[in-house]
Each structure stands twice: as C-alpha cells, then as structure tokens.
Amino acid sequence: DLELELHSRDGRHLNVRVIGEAVRDDMGRVSRIQGAFQDVTEIRRAQRERRDLALRLQQTLESMSDAVLMFDPAWRVVFLNPMGERLLHRSRADLLGQVVWEECREAAGSTFQVEYERAVRTRSRVQFVEYFPPLETWFDVTAYPTDDGLVVYFRDVTARRE
Predict the structure, then answer these.
(1) What is the dihedral of CA 117, 123, 126, 132, to 10 degrees?
(2) What are phi and psi of 103, to 5 degrees?
(3) Rounded CA gap, 145 and 149, in Å?
(4) How far apart (Å, rounded) are the C-alpha atoms in residues 106 and 102?
(5) For 13-52, how does the pLDDT look when each residue is reduced to its tens digit (9 = 90+)?
(6) CB 3.0–4.6 Å: which of 5, 51, 108, 125 could bond 101 by disulfide?
C-alpha cells in the first residue's frame, strides 16, 4: 500500500495510491500480484489547499493587533495569539489545553463567563467592555460562537476608559 507521485507523458503531475497483494500457489511461491491503482491527485490537492489555508489563517491570527483567544466546547483554551499572551500576562504554553475557569479562577462567575456562555447558548455574537481587577485592565471584548467552540477578540481599552 503506497502513495506515489507520477508524471504522465503529457506532463501532468499525479498522486496515485497503489495497493497490491501477492497471490501464492500451492507451494507458497508468488504466482501473481493483484491490486488496484487509484488516482488520488484531487484528494491530495484539496488537502494541500486546506493545509495552506489553515497556515494562512494561523499567520493572520498570530499577527493581529487584537488579542485572539479560542475555546473548545469544554472551555479548554485551544489558541492564544501573541497579543493575547501580552494582555493576559500568560504564555500560551501555560494555557493551551487548560479549562479557562480552572486556570483563571478570577474569571469564573464574572461577566466574562456569563457573556461567553450566553454567546454559546444563543449562538450569537456578544460584545462588552469589562474591567478585570487581577490585571487592572479594562477589556473591550467580542466573542463569536463557532461549531468548534468560541472565538474571542479582545483589546486593552484602559487608557481610553481613564
């Protein structure tokens, strides 16, 4: 069972899957090979496009001037961009895979949790400005529910509030 890259006589590039199995005679010798040859070029092209799109999306989110934080349905942190690390004073290595309400207990029960849960429950965008005492920071927050959880964009608006 192999995947190979081939070039046809007319110059086309193909990705193929070749599956083969030896058929043995009564003496155990290979008498023939049987199998299949499948063109998987379109499947591999679509996978490359999906991978390239995911990479572009990640690069975009990484370079945004807004902080971006993503949660899965169990409220585990699945993404935090560099601006998010700066504003939260936490590294993504510490937060990724952690349940936000356990890792950041000061946010549990706060407006942040209430609004995030409302966004997920109502499947609608929420936007609010809230002060977070542990960081002495006002945040302007917009949260969008997705099929995979919740995406949160936020920025420090402390100077504007003051």
Answers:
(1) 20
(2) -75, -30
(3) 6
(4) 9
(5) 899 999 999 999 999 999 999 999 899 989 998 998 889 8
(6) 108
